[in-house]
Amino acid sequence: MDFQQFKNGLEGLLKEKAEFELQEFQYFPYCFGHGTLAYRIKGYNVRFTYDGRDNLLTCERSNFHEKYTKCSWTILFKSEGLIWKEQWTEALLNI
Length: 95
What we know:
By secondary structure, the protein is α+β, with helices and mostly antiparallel strands. Helix content is 24%, strand content 40%. It is built from two helices and five strands.
């Protein structure tokens, strides 16, 4: 799975359960598949960063109603690979 497929799968899950707005999407397929993906969900900014070299996915969340460009991030979870786990969906929706 590449980062583009991860994005499409994540948006499919979110469409069913919550309203969201895409804030940022960057994907570098020729640079180890690095990518950054950010959404606004329930007043929070949520950012996914994938490091293709280390195969590490990081999910971070901002404080409530912070602007995306000026927010401070709190790590929600880190994982190896781009495999989505169901408990992460619940964590995102229960922010």
